[in-house]
Design brief:
The complex is a heterodimer of chains A (121) and B (201).
Chain A: E1 3-8, H1 12-21, E2 28-33, H2 36-45, E3 50-53, H3 62-72, E4 77-82, H4 87-95, E5 100-103, H5 108-117
Parallel strand pairs in A: 1-2, 1-3, 3-4, 4-5
Chain B: H1 7-32, E1 36-38, E2 42-47, H2 48-58, E3 62-71, E4 76-84, H3 85-95, H4 104-126, E5 131-133, E6 137-139, H5 143-153, E7 159-169, E8 174-183, H6 184-199
Antiparallel strand pairs in B: 1-7, 2-7, 3-4, 3-5, 3-6, 4-8, 7-8
Helix pairs in contact in B: 1-4, 1-6, 2-5
Classes of the chains: A alpha/beta (121), B alpha+beta (201).
Amino acid sequence: MSSSVLICDDSNLARKQVLRSLPDSWEVDVQLAKHGVEALEVLNNSDIDVMFLDLTMPELDGVGVLEAIKQDDINVDVFVISADIQPEMQSKVLDLGAKAFLRKPVSPDVLLDTLKQHGIM
Amino acid sequence: MAYELNEDQQDCLQELINVAMGQASDQLARYLDTFVFLTVPNIELVNGHGLSSTLESNTDSTAVVSQGFFGYEGIRGEALLVYQHKDSDRIADLLGYEPGELSVEEQLIDISSILTTTFLNVFASQIENQMSYSAPKLLAHTQDTVSDYIKQVSFDWEMALKVNINYQVTDYSFNCEMILLIPAAAIENIKMVIDRILEDY
């Protein structure tokens, strides 16, 4: 059975980087969002198992998305993939419920290890 | 317009800048022992005349530190760090210096150099390049001097790519704007590098 995955990043290149880094052995159905507002629309209209979320985005940033997920009690495993690598930001997103923080640009090995650590692979 | 970046090139450049900006802000946050709020960087193409007038509107009552950068493959430009006076006067407190330990000018050059070189080194590594730098230079505080300097460094720039990055230190209401100016000849070179990256996708 395939997992439903949402990749949210304002950069087309970054979305492709994440898409390319997904493990080959992982059967996924992928949806894409260009900012937080689009991501919440997808989350509210589909069952998403795993979301890869950028932080610095227009419209609604990644922190806003995590707050909305928490407030609306949406059941999704969120992995933040961001260039904003400040320790305070990493703690903040983990406090808001993200499973892990990965720094950009993400590599396939790191992504696979992280997914394994969280029992997704 | 020949120098204009298409949508994919602009997206790619923005993402490269985003990653570099993240690491530079991390350095700044560690240096100041605080948190730096990041916003989406702005990239625009400006002509030589527009460049001076755009910067003039930004340079009212500011201190500006300028540093040139030069990489392989003809990638070069000028990085300007623009501070509001109220911020530059408070920088010793932020950096934890004792009164008289370092002049405000030296402190501004210190912090600017960290931001510029961290940002550009990360940017360069992503495009498999390496940067060298001119000595950072604090421009005098008057608007005319800044404007004259910009004209001087940009006198042969018919067109420039202007990248604005805002570093906001939330604990102290400290705001520093990094403006990268990339001249026309270097834009073509950057576009070639970006196209190489995009070919992989």
